Here is the input.
Amino acid sequence: MSRLNSLFARSRVAGRPALIPFITAGDPDIKTTRRLVLELEKRGADIIELGVPFSDPLADGPTIQASSKRALDNGTRMKVILQLVKNLRGETQIPLVLMSYYNPIYQYGLEKFSKDAVGAGVDGVIISDLPPEEAVDWKKAAAGFGLDTIFLAAPTSTEERIGTIIASSSGFIYYVSVTGITGARTALPSGVLSSLKRIKQKTKKPVVVGFGISTPEQVRRLSQWADGIIVGSALVRIIEKNIGKPTLISAAGDFMASLSSKAVGCRL
Amino acid sequence: MRLPDKKGHFGLFGGKFVPETLMPALDELTEAYASYKEDASFKKELTYYLKEYAGRPTPLYFAERLSLLLGNAKIYLKREDLCHTGAHKINNTLGQVLLAKRMQKKRVIAETGAGQHGVATATTAALLGIDCSIYMGEKDIARQEVNVFRMKLLGAEVIPVSSGSKTLKDAINETIRDWVTNVRHTYYVIGSVVGPHPYPVIVRDFQSVIGRETRRQILRKEGCLPDYLVACVGGGSNALGLFYPFLNDEVKMIGVEAAGSGVATNHHSATLSTGTTGVLQGTMSYLLQNSDGQIKEAHSIAPGLDYPGVGPEHSYLKESGRVQYVNATDKEALKAFKLLSEKEGIIPALESAHAVAQVCKMTSSLKNEEIVIINLSGRGDKDVDAVSRILRMKNEPPE
Here is the structure.
């Protein structure tokens, strides 16, 4: 069983959602990313989502745009990220998922990337600007090496599209909670719970929710319905505020622990 | 085979590489466009505005003095610079904003580089009474002050973009982010034959009025088709608008990219001449990028050409060999800018001056009486300040 599948099986038994922090690989530098992954795991993360920085992150808000820029400015490349994953596999078996735009993967080469990513210990890939329609070549390459592809469903997705997205995804399905770009928001969008419920009725695959989730209270409210919860910009902002300070790792860890404490739920 | 295919692919190029949130909107747009394209009342309304408001048909002017000076060829100028708002951009914005109205969208948004597309969108939005926001890079705002003021005067909100290169590419990113957020009631008026399907098709079709008119006009004037069509290529809408109705004819076509300080430097926008294939802003096409797939900044004296991508159909036409793509440097464009002003009394946009520069370079190899049509896509009023600054800097007064 893959690391992702067994993780979700375990969290299902435990009756709590998987907590999935997102950080940009290489922000503020690749060594800190390694320490962050280990700390986040220790403080309650179940899966880590590593962002691959891209020059034109059109689905991202200002926080992750700035984070990507910092990572690119210090020379974070795909090769460096895969090497980081490889090194981490000596220390942890936590599922690691890369989130990237399509072009960095396309330039690396679809086959070569799939092979190298699996070889390094990457479990799955989320590609923000690759809908199932354009993913035929990618799926062939990734599936050939046993790499999971997680597609995104959005509030605007039609029933028909949701069906396609579910069928095309492996590992889990990523439900984008808001009609918009990434970024912390004060309130959960209305309708997110009912949308989650609706998608979950259609599939046995895990359904994970992300975009705009930033507080322990929001995590608590989603815990009943989601198989996993992704928190990105709020965490990236804490890292940004602590750049150059000795508190960076512990601040990120404390935030992770505060989310984790609320990820409990009488699962329905 | 008619291209693109159903999914919007021109061979390897094109497609829809966008976040899922936008996919239903693109499907909705594809459907709406397919139905209105054939709709008699829509076509009638568009034709009315193109004629009565934008000033079409634009003249196909025989540039006699330029022809004499360069020798060997008959050079015609397709005078898109005479369109209302000063460039070909309004052909597309009239079509798209009318479409937005029919689709009952409450607001239009657009990106702009030189400001021409922003002004055309703001103008059309004012005409048709719809809210309008324009994204523009801070660097472009600084070098195109007058257009910024024009947009505001026309009632549009101008939103400065401070990310990345602070030019057209980043304005497009920011417009897409707005669209992702407000997609339910907002229509994105893309200004060139770029972006995800169906935009490259929609913009090409609305701009093809240029080529259709040119075809009729040259047949009337010369009794034959031209030997060459020459147009500048940034995203490539004016070029494709001119070329498309001639694609099945025996007419040679040349697209001219901006070579900036030279294609051997890092300061150019010659995407087709020097780029590689990749995905940017919703489409697979040639791009200026490094080996990691990070997009490079483009540079040109002409802000409308300052883009590290290009329309997917141009990539296809390059691969198929149907169109030849060349480039002209900032210096050559400036020289052509002055030449056309002095010899024909027409101040071209710096973008269009790249096409003129190419014709200056190629006439010596032409046969007598060969017919060359240049798409004079815009007028140079917007560039006069910038050019006067550059010439002053070089201590080269225009006289």
Summary: Chain A has one domain: 3-263.
